[in-house]
Design goal:
alpha+beta, Protocatechuate 3,4-Dioxygenase, subunit A, 5-stranded mixed beta sheet, 4-stranded mixed beta sheet, about 25% helix, globular, binds fe (ii) ion
Length: about 280
C-alpha cells in the first residue's frame, strides 16, 4: 500500500476497515470515510481549512464540562439532533412527539412531591403545570418518572450560574394512580443558545439568531413504555418559527393561561408509546 493518491486513498482506507469485527462499527466507519472524503473532494478542501476544522472541533471539546455540552449544541444547531430524533421516534398518531434533548439535562435530579415548587428562588412569574401521563388508549400511566428542567426569567439554566449552591428549576415528579402530576414553577423565558463558545462563534459567522422560544423540558419514563424526551413550547412566543435548534413541533405548542391573580397554568397530556412486546 504505497503511492496512494487522490483517486486511490478512499478505497485503501475502506479496505483496511474490512476486518473490523463489530459489523455496525465497520458500517459506520466505512460510511464516515466515504462521506468525509466526498466532502473534501467536493469542497476542494485546503490544508488550512482542514487545520481550521480541527481547531474548531478541539475548541468544542475543550468547552465541554460536567455542566456544558458543546457537542450537543453543535449537533443541535446543525439540525443533526432533530434529524436523528425524527428518524428514531416515528410514533403512532396520538403519541406525544419527541424533540431534542438539549445541552442542559443533568441526570439524577432531585425527586419532588406532587405540587412542589420546582423553581426554588429562580426569578420569574409564578406558574403551575398540571400534567397527565397516559397510554395511547387513554389509560393512565401510574408511577411514571417525570423529569422536568427549564430556564428562568433571565433565560438561564441553573448550570449556567457559577454561584448557585445546588440544582434549581429542575426536579423529578412521579405520577399518581390517575397518571397525573403537578408542579409549581416560574415561566420559562426565551433564551439564546450559549454564544460564549465555538458554536456561538459559528452562529455569528453564519446567518440566523440564537434565540430559542420559551419551553419546558420533559423526560418521562415508565416500565413498558418508550422513554419520551420532549419540550412544551409557550404559545405566542415570537421565536416558534425560527428556533435555532429546529425543535418546535406544532403539537408541542401550548398556552400557559393566566388567571386574575397573575398565576399562569399549563395543562398538558403526555401520551407514551408502549414498548414492543409489552402490550397489556
Ligand atoms: Fe432548553
Amino acid at each position: 500500500m504505497r503511492n496512494l493518491n487522490q483517486d486511490t486513498i478512499t478505497q485503501a482506507v475502506i479496505a483496511r476497515l474490512s476486518d473490523t469485527p463489530d459489523a455496525r462499527l465497520k458500517e459506520v466507519l466505512t460510511c464516515v470515510v466515504q462521506h468525509l472524503h466526498a466532502l473534501a473532494r467536493e469542497l476542494r478542501l485546503t490544508e488550512a481549512e482542514l487545520q481550521a476544522g480541527i481547531e474548531f472541533l478541539t475548541a468544542v471539546g475543550k468547552k465541554c464540562s460536567a455542566s456544558r455540552q458543546e457537542f450537543v449544541l453543535l449537533a443541535d444547531v446543525l439540525g443533526l439532533s432533530t434529524l436523528t430524533v425524527a428518524m428514531n421516534h416515528d410514533k403512532p398518531a396520538g403519541c406525544t412527539e419527541a424533540t431534542t434533548f438539549g445541552p442542559f439535562y443533568v441526570p439524577d435530579a432531585q425527586p419532588m412531591a406532587s405540587g412542589a415548587d420546582l423553581a426554588g428562588d429562580a426569578p420569574g412569574q409564578p406558574c403551575r403545570v398540571r400534567g397527565r401521563v397516559c397510554a395511547l388508549d387513554g389509560g393512565p400511566v401510574a408511577a411514571a418518572q417525570v423529569e422536568v428542567w427549564q430556564s428562568d426569567a433571565d433565560g438561564r439554566y441553573d448550570v449556567q450560574y457559577e454561584d448557585l449552591p445546588g440544582p434549581r428549576a429542575r426536579g423529578v415528579f412521579s405520577t399518581g394512580a390517575d397518571g397525573r402530576f403537578q408542579l409549581r414553577s416560574v415561566l420559562a423565558s426565551p433564551y439564546p443558545v450559549p454564544e460564549d463558545g465555538p458554536v456561538g462563534q459559528l452562529m455569528r459567522a453564519s446567518s440566523g439568531h440564537p434565540w430559542r422560544p420559551a419551553h419546558m423540558h420533559f423526560r418521562i419514563s415508565a416500565p413498558g413504555f418508550e422513554i419520551l424526551v420532549t419540550q412544551v413550547y409557550r404559545q405566542g412566543d415570537p421565536y416558534l418559527d425560527s428556533d435555532p435548534v429546529y425543535g418546535v413541533r406544532q403539537s408541542l405548542v401550548a398556552p400557559w393561561v393566566p388567571d386574575e391573580q397573575g398565576l399562569y397554568t399549563l395543562d398538558f397530556d403526555f401520551v407514551l408509546q408502549r414498548r414492543a412486546g409489552s402490550e397489556p
